[in-house]
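Fold Annotation — chain and its backbone
Next Lines — sequence and tokenised fold

***
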Amino acid sequence: MIGKTIGHYRVLEKLGGGGMGVVYEAEDLKLGRHVALKFLPEELAHDPQALERFRREARSASALNHPNICTIHDISEENGRSFIAMEFMAGQTLKHRLLAGPIPAEELLELAVQIADALDAAHSEGIVHRDIKPANIFITKRGQAKILDFGLAKLTANHAPASLDGATLEANLTSPGTAVGTVAYMSPEQARGEDLDKRTDLFSFGAVLYEMATGRMAFSGNTSALIFDAILHKAPTSLVRINPELPAELEYVINKALEKDRAMRYQSAGEMLADLKRLRRNSSSTRVEAVVDDHKATRRPWLYVTAIVIVLLALVGSAWWRSQGGQQITSIAVMPFINGSNDANAEYLSDGITESLINNLSQLPKLAVIPRASVFHYKGRDIDPQAVARDLKVQGVITGRILQRGDQLIISAELIDARTNRNVWGDQYDRKLSDVLAVQQDITAAISSHLREQLTGETKQAIAKGGTTNPEAYQLYLKGRYYWERRTPESLEKSKDYFSQAIAADPNYALSYVGLADYYNVVTDYSPIASRDAAPKAQAAAQKALAIDDSLVDSHTAMAAAYWNLLDFAQSEREFRRALEINPDYTNAHHWFGLFLCWQARCSEGLPHLRRAVELDPLNLQYNANLGQGLENAKQYDAAIEQLKKTLDMDPNFANAHGQLRNAYREMGKYELWLEEWRKNAELTDDGEDRAIAEEVTKVYGRSGYLAASKLSAQLEEKLAKRRYVDPAVLAYEYAFADQKEQALAWLEKAAAEKSGSLQVVKIVPSLDKWRSDPRYLAVLKQIGLPP
């Protein structure tokens, strides 16, 4: 063929070939220009009816005068071989370009706009391509996109094989006429063999854009059957998860193009073109701003962090109302934002923004939001949003990523409707830390445009409760929460310092006072500190928070815990009920109030609250373990053991669950298991003193039995009390287990005199059951304000 003259074309060299024919470069001897000659496959060229249809289509396509459509010059036949003469271009197909990997966002958007413009022009003339794929898009050396083969796709529709079920992936990516269009880029209506219109091109274009952005095919499989199944029933992996630095708006455009229901897809290429042009313009503006800001950036991230959280909230709220064409998402989980900075010192930032979003979204009416502990169960894992949604029984999942580069902060987030695995909304924020006023104006505009229809003034006020406008205070508060959640003696001390610094930076920051109260309310569980020293400080901090904002549910819960530690049971119950009146679904209030009631021997009232806390926050290890504790308090031992083992299934190293099992087994008379769980708990809490006592008691139990072991346990705890603080009520309970009445009641009276924290459980400790009618025991109850 090389060197031959076909009609008035001299063939120069072969350019390529495939299922749709072989292409040669040729010289047009009449006009002195180079063209591309494409010889059609024999099975098409020898079918008179098919060839006539092709001629009609080619005539229509040749009338398209568009810079991004490959021009058809001629269609002819030589020695029984049909061919078309097309515009000759130097460059490569998009298919070959993608062998080098995904295309940078700036170049991708430029090419996407050109391709969409070409499709809009063709569709305006009533011409549908039907086989948009990378092999049919040419990229010239000057970066211009050209769509190839208009007209060929319709020709192949009448030559589709009857069945593809046994076809391999390689075959249906290369064979001609595969059910009209290459399988991997087909629209769902193509796969079903339905009538096609211009929207089929938009779906295929969406699949091409996805591959340009990620380097991966949107729908793949080892056989055509698997590819068809993916096209018809599955959503491709989120762009942002594959490449977090892609503009989230691009994901929106691609997802809309890939809607399986064509009525929900872009209805015209012009509509899609407008969105792509807008995205290209906005991306260009962001780049220009970044260049300017590089010369004047300052390190003041925290105004932006707070602001970006508000914007994320606004846009998520907007997407929530618009998702599924009005099928609202009514339950949601905010996954821990990924710290993409590879800097452990920035971890509190990703955790803090996640928690802020959870708290803020919880204020939206008729939206159930999974609390922090359950979602943080997935921290550090590669999550499947649909699997998470099934686990947590929610409809929507938010994922996000934070990247800090010097004084630049990039935050990306997306909302996925888990019912369809469809990306409902996504966005990315790239901020230089310079002009605070300009950013505030941007945020105000974003809230106005996206949320004015959804958030009432009352809701906006609820979201802002307890907050601060001081960026330094916000930063310090986030650090305080980060360390408080880690719950070790060292981390708790850091949390106290950060909360105190946040208060110093903004004395009207209510949540910082709540954080300080929370520190004092829990520190006695992790360090040898007397409740009489910590509880008044917790009360003072909670009172300050309430003075700032009496309607803050966190403040009332912190105050309830402080009163409880002060053994002011009536005031504590009042505050718990007030918290649940403000927010009936506030999990922490349910959790603590449930324990409060159980520890007053009111388990029939307390267990529903403990179960509600677990229902609202199903993967919260503390809530699950304390439900087991409540069942143990109610003497439902089998149910308690089952619940505690369920907790350990989630995390075998959760020390609190082992501690509760220790108590339950002892009360059940399963002493070997009691000692085993005691040792595990001591190992996990890294308490050397407790571990040493457990080892000694285990030895004595092996030699002399349970009572001797219990007596030694009490004696060793009493010796320990000489070196560090041990709650006297704990010593009383230990001597009671050893059946040492005098020592037990004496320590109980000492505990009452100092109002020690462990008297909270005095009414339900089984070791005291045999002395419930003893006057000395009843006097202790009266002294601390508990009924018999």
